[in-house]
Write a structure and sequence with these properties.
The chain is of the alpha/beta class and 451 residues long. It has 4 domains: 117 residues, Rossmann fold (3-Layer(aba) Sandwich), CATH 3.40.50.2300; 163 residues, P-loop containing nucleotide triphosphate hydrolases (Rossmann fold); 80 residues, Helicase, Ruva Protein, domain 3, CATH 1.10.8; 52 residues. The strands form 4 sheets. Strands 2-1-3-4-5 form a 5-stranded parallel β-sheet, with helices on both faces. Strands 7-8-11-6-12 form a 5-stranded parallel β-sheet. Strand 9 and strand 10 form a beta hairpin. The protein is globular, with a radius of gyration of 29 Å. This is Two-component system response regulator GlrR. InterPro entries: AAA+_ATPase (IPR003593), AAA_lid_NorR (IPR058031), CheY-like_superfamily (IPR011006), Homeodomain-like_sf (IPR009057), P-loop_NTPase (IPR027417), Sig_transdc_resp-reg_receiver (IPR001789), Sigma_54_int (IPR002078), Sigma_54_int_dom_ATP-bd_1 (IPR025662). Keywords: ATP-binding, Nucleotide-binding, Phosphoprotein, Transcription, Transcription regulation, Two-component regulatory system. GO terms for molecular function: ATP binding.
Length: 451
């Protein structure tokens, strides 16, 4: 795979110097973008993320230091080199203390500038991956043109260089496992296993055995030794999805494993050393869970060494057309359909939707449209029908409970022919409580009485 050239944004209100710098850096093998003031630079950064910014200090409007301060506040991993015609040693020291990567006085030596650029780019995670995986490959499954997502991926690649535990926050369907896998692929453990487990999907009594393994005879049905996921992920990464749903008793045992770096299979008296990197994820607010006693504070700090948050799809709508067309291409091939894209009206509906189910919901919508489409363009009618059906399926927990309660009450009243006393007894509720339920759902028991 051919790697793209490192991208450098140059900011200077001197058009001649701007052109000269662009020519020199392009000749040195860099891709350059040039703008003439700080405001234009910020607009550019909203659209695209370079790996380095080189800016003049003295400019009309926003000066170079103000531009740096904005970049450092919003994208602290993006290195900035400042060029100035009035630089002094104290100025350079002060700039370095504030986080400026390089500070060069004009006229500067080209070799010195190129050396600083090379050094900055070596430290920029958007250029030099910390593994043998090609730059684009480690994040190939994450489709985005969002500046916020690019910032997140920059942080993810920095994190990938070490073994620090990572806690990924994000709503369901945002792609937390994809990000965890990308971190694994960008790191030094990329050639070792990536093992994922959903802590909410495995019954409490089985989760300990799944994580730590068990020995033959440890419990009824344990007919042979079983290797746990910690051992399966040996040398690699263990991804603990929905860690906020892990039972408290198991949280204690997980904490001990993280502290001692060894596990004890269920039913065994022997411990086994383990070498894994832990990445966990949750859609819950674990700080609140810690406050209410639902999650151990000591485990929270063990897991939350580095925190990353994936934005909901509704917060990065610029990604919706990109993702929709990406899914369309994949699914059209899967179902052998000759579909070229979405009509403008259909795409407008997708972009303006609320997306409570995030990227996963978008993929489901596109799949329904592809399956039912008989034309080369996805129509707004198909999108509307698919989204309407999806909305019926993806209701909130409270709405689902209300629907269940009402359906249940109707069935019980039908069975008892509207006899509230019998209905309350059948549903194991006292009569007063049952009446309150009927009032909540505006049900009239007399309407169910036999004629």
């Amino acid at each position: 795979m051919t790697e793209s050239r490192p991208k450098i944004l140059i900011v200077d209100d001197d058009a001649d110097l701007l052109e000269l710098l662009s020519i020199r850096l392009s000749a040195a093998g860099y891709e350059t973008e040039a703008v003439q003031n700080g405001e234009a630079a910020l607009n550019h950064l909203d659209v695209s993320r370079p790996q380095l910014v080189i800016t003049d200090m003295q400019m009309g409007g926003m000066d170079g230091m103000a531009l740096f301060e904005h970049i450092h506040r919003t994208t602290p991993t993006l290195p900035v080199i400042i060029l100035t015609a009035h630089g002094t040693i104290p100025d350079a020291v002060a700039a370095a203390q504030r986080g400026v990567f390089g500070y060069l006085a004009k006229p500067f030596d080209s070799k010195t500038l190129l050396a600083q650029i090379a050094q900055a780019l070596r430290l920029s995670p958007g250029v030099a991956p910390h593994s043998e995986v090609p730059q684009a490959l480690w994040r190939a499954d994450i489709i985005t043109q969002s500046a916020a997502m690019e910032d997140l991926l920059t942080k993810a690649q920095l994190v990938a260089a070490g073994d620090a535990s990572v806690l990924i926050h994000g709503e369901s369907g945002t792609g937390k496992e994809l990000l965890a896998h990308a971190i694994h692929d960008a790191g030094k453990r990329s050639h070792q296993p990536f093992v994922a487990v959903n802590c909410a999907a495995i019954p409490e009594q089985l989760l300990e055995s799944e994580l730590f393994g068990h020995v033959k005879g440890a419990f009824t049905g344990a007919v042979r030794d079983h290797q746990g996921l910690f051992q399966m992920a040996g040398g690699g990464t263990l991804f603990l999805d929905e860690i906020g749903d892990m039972p408290l008793l198991l949280q204690v045992k997980l904490l001990r494993v993280l502290q001692e770096r060894q596990i004890r299979p269920v039913g065994s008296a022997q411990t086994i050393p383990v070498d894994v990197r832990i990445i966990s994820a949750t859609h819950r607010d674990l700080r609140t869970e810690v406050t209410t006693g639902g999650f151990r504070e000591d485990l929270y700090y063990r897991l939350n060494v580095v925190a990353l948050t994936i934005l909901a799809l509704s917060q990065r709508r610029e990604d919706i057309p990109l993702l929709a067309n990406h899914f369309l291409g994949l699914l059209a091939r899967k179902y052998q359909k000759n579909i070229n894209g979405f009509s403008p009206e259909a795409m407008e509906m997708l972009v303006s939707a609320s997306w409570p189910g995030n990227v996963r919901q978008l993929m489901n919508i596109v799949e329904q449209c592809v399956v039912l489409s008989t034309a080369p363009l996805i129509s707004p009618v198909l999108v509307y029908d698919a989204m309407h059906k999806e909305e019926e399926q993806l209701v909130s927990f409270e709405e689902a409970r209300k629907r269940f309660e009402r359906d249940y009450l109707v069935r019980v009243l039908k069975i008892t022919a509207g006899n509230v006393t019998q209905a309350a007894r059948l549903s194991k509720r006292n009569r007063t409580e049952f009446y309150k339920l009927l009032q909540r759902h505006q049900l009239d028991a007399s309407a169910f009485k036999s004629s």
